[in-house]
Specification:
The structure is a single chain. By secondary structure, the protein is mainly alpha-helical. It has 2 domains: 86 residues, Uncharacterised protein YqeY/AIM41, N-terminal domain (Hypothetical Protein Yqey, Chain: A, domain1, Orthogonal Bundle), CATH 1.10.1510; 51 residues, Arc Repressor Mutant, subunit A. 78% of the residues lie in helices and 0% in strands. The longest helix is centred in the middle third of the chain and has 24 residues. The relative contact order is 0.11.
């Protein structure tokens, strides 16, 4: 079992002991998504894959919050924010804008990217480094601005 998955399982036990319903519910959602991926793909998820799944879950919550706020459902948006906070506890620390900019510049230099046709190469280099540590949609916009 991956170290991160073990940490999430322990967090579930701690939330049960503390009777923290919000945290327990969110951690169970995380574990069920990990289990779904393992069963569907017949694999044991490693830490890198767990980060990808957690990042995806965070993105889904961001999208939901935007939709709920547009619809005037602040109560549902608040629930999604609480879930995002719990998910964020298992993600590595977010990178600062300066760190992201430096990684983008390095990736562009390493790949020899000169235009938009090289965007895939740059994203391929950056994605493993930034997964769970930065919003990939925002990173994509920054790369487009530099290459375009």
């Amino acid at each position: 079992m991956s170290e991160l998955k073990q940490q999430i399982t322990e967090a579930m036990k701690d939330a049960m002991r503390a009777r923290d319903k919000v945290r327990l519910g969110t951690v169970r959602l995380i574990l069920s998504e990990l289990k779904r991926v393992e069963v569907d793909e017949r694999i044991d998820v490693d830490d890198a894959r767990v980060l990808v799944i957690l990042d995806k879950m965070n993105k889904q919550r961001r999208d939901s919050i935007a939709q709920y706020e547009t619809a005037g459902r602040d109560d549902l948006a608040a629930i999604e924010r609480e879930e995002m906070e719990v998910i964020a506890t298992f993600l590595p620390a977010a990178l600062s804008q300066d760190e992201i900019d430096a990684l983008i510049e390095t990736a562009i230099a390493d790949t020899g990217a000169e235009g938009m046709q090289d965007m895939g190469k740059v994203m391929g280099v950056l994605k493993p480094q930034l997964q769970g540590r930065a919003d990939m949609a925002a990173v994509s916009k920054l790369i487009k601005a530099r290459l375009g």
